[in-house]
Amino acid sequence: MILPIVAYGDPVLRKVGVEIDKNYPNLAELIENMRETMLNAQGVGLAAPQIDKSIRLFIVNTTPFGEDEDLDEVERTFLANFDKVFINAKIIKEEGDEWAFTEGCLSIPDIREDVFRQSKITIEYLDENFEKHTEVIDGLAARVIQHEYDHIEGILFTDKISSLKKRLLKKKLENISKGKVNADYRMKFPTLKRK
What we know:
The chain is an alpha+beta fold. The chain has one domain (5-182): Peptide Deformylase, CATH 3.90.45.10. It is 26% helix and 31% strand. It has four helices and seven strands, in the order E-H-E-E-H-E-E-E-H-H-E. A five-stranded antiparallel beta sheet has the order 2-3-4-5-6, with helices on both faces. It is globular and about 40 Å long.
């Protein structure tokens, strides 16, 4: 089932997600719904807060990058097959040179900005079968993971841009929170009464 994606301005996007265990209700169905929602919106990652669940769960599928001719063949092949579920993830280490890449977010449609992130991460996480993994990942896959990981920490990519750019985007961000945006996927906009 395709779920509505929570828009910028909703308080759930600012909450730190809570850990879950294998008894979390309907987890397999939730993961499948998240995958369907992400693919429908043409995203490469989706975190649970973006579908109104303040839990430490996100998915990443970098398959679309596998067709990017600007990348070398090794990275293209890796990205074409990178499709993972991350539960209770913890980034242990970020290292390498910071590099800029233009990021966007399904919760913040029509805004794309350069964000600087380190190139390599070490991450611990549980997969959908609650098997533990520790992996070192670099390049674009690491960047997508860092972006989604930020979501479960209550951080948005717009928090990582310069104060000047934030000021320039202020009106656009306000409009998104008011539902004044055209997205070609279902969205859920914040209401003033929500706590």
